[in-house]
Amino acid sequence: MATILIVEDQPNVRRSMALMVEQDGHAVFEATNATEALALLGRHRVDVVVSDVRMPGDLDGASLLRRIKGLDPDIEVVLATAFGTIDHAVDAIKCGAYDYLTKPVDPERLLLTIRRAAERGALALEVRELRAHIDQGHLVSRSRAMQTLVKQVRQLAQSDSTVLITGESGTGKELVARALYDEGPRRRGKFVPVNCGALSESILESELFGHRKGAFTGAVADKKGLLEEADGGVLFLDEIGEMPAGMQVRLLRFLQGGEVRRLGETQTRRVNVRLVAATHRSLEAEVARGTFRQDFYYRINVVSLHIPPLRNRPEDLEELAEHFLRRVAVRARRKVTGFTPRALELLLAYAWPGNVRELENAIERATNLASGEVITEADLPAAVTVSSEGTAPDGLGVPVEERTRLLHALERSRWNQSRAAEELGISRTTLWRKLREHRIAT
To answer: Residue 442 has what pLDDT?
Structure first.
């Protein structure tokens, strides 16, 4: 969840945008002008600002953008206007805007832009810390496996080889991809991330290759694709195992020739892009099943980097927990400095199926809930606190692993039973029965 500030002088438009963003799972602040926005930014931590360009008062959206970037360059700013031109958009991007939207703003485009901007802002801080840790010879890690990985990253950063990063969800594949970019000569270009599993095939094709005005319904202007956007830099294809077969063919042609053709055009453009891909799937197994193209697999798997799951490197856990605690405490302005022995014992005993991402979320939750200067057992998620027991505390003799999975799914879905049941692959009725068996109150 990110914190978003909507700056818009028209109440109906502002409230409508705020409701959409809230329904997408974000916290929202609202301001009617730049002065109110700056006052809110002085009191609250905000990840993304969505601002109208034309507003009453002394400051317009472009001026607000410059002021925000002067205050905190990690805050991403998206500008929106009913009077958009290409020149205005270019100027906004040059001044540091994440994106420039034309009103009336398409809801899907708005939410997608906010999600991407929030991810970019959150990762910017992590990348700076990552560089510092790489300079010290470790990636917030004591384990031999991770130290070996860091050495490989430092070597590969200087090359242009295509890299495939593998590992379970939540292990930090994008951080490794950004390190390859950030530590190499291509940092003068852009790092352009794409989640292949979040977009339909038609949208993914348009996003990657771009399109010409009129190429399809809704193509109201020429659009540069992300491959062109990454020219001179790095294109990161996350969850490449989800990429449709048709897109695999198109991308394979690009990798073989280095040329891009926008939808609706006949001319081609040459671009120089380093490709880094990531997946939590076994692509070898997908190739064997015929669900992933073998020729495409060989093309992207020039060099492979594997990130081990957190459960296989317990020596990293305490250092990671302390690392996340320091960062969250600063961002949340909380004076929380450590863990009780029992809390640390529970953290070490838990299997962390969601890996580093789950640990980070647990520490963020605990830091914000802590009533004192240390995190206690009571501040930790329920899934963590029951993991050291052999059976569920209801005395029914049911293995604790099932109870832990239920609690984990409920917490990730914010106790929405329909979403939790979908994640677990069971019906809502079955979930309700299991909650009764384990005496989990909802």
So the answer is: 56
What domain range is 66 assigned to? Answer: 3-117
Q: Identity (one letter) of the amino acid at 121?
A: G
Q: Which of 180, 168, 47, 129 is nearest to 319 (CA)?
A: 129
Cβ-proximal residues to 88 (8 Å cutoff; 6+ apart), any chain: 53, 81, 100
Q: How confident is the model at residue 224 (pLDDT cuts 50, 70, 90)?
A: confident
Indicate the SS3 state at residue 282: coil
* Count of CA atoms in the C-beta half-sphere (13 A) of 281: 19
Q: Which residue has the higher pLDDT, 367 or 118?
A: 367
What's 294's domain CATH number? Answer: 3.40.50.300
- The string of DSSP letters for 213-263 reads TTSSTT--S-EE-HHHHTTTSEEEEETGGG--HHHHHHHHHHHHH-EE--B
Domain count for the chain: 3
Confidence of residue 45 (pLDDT cuts 50, 70, 90): confident
Report the SS3 class of residue 116. helix
* Cα distance between residue 404 and residue 387, in whole Å: 7
153 and 279 inside one domain: yes
Is residue 65 domain-shared with residue 186, that is, in the same domain? no
Nearby residues of 415 by Cβ (< 8 Å), 6 or more positions away: 442
Q: How far is CA 253 from CA 140, 146, 249, 301, in A?
A: 38, 34, 6, 16
Helices (H), 136-200: 144-156, 173-182
Q: Has residue 265 got a pLDDT over 90?
A: no
Residues 283 and 320 in one domain: no
Question: Alpha-carbon distance 427 to 205, whole Å?
Answer: 35
* Cβ neighbours of residue 305 closer than 8 Å, sequence gap 6 or more: 149, 152, 153, 156, 163, 164, 165, 166, 176
Same domain, 181 and 246: yes
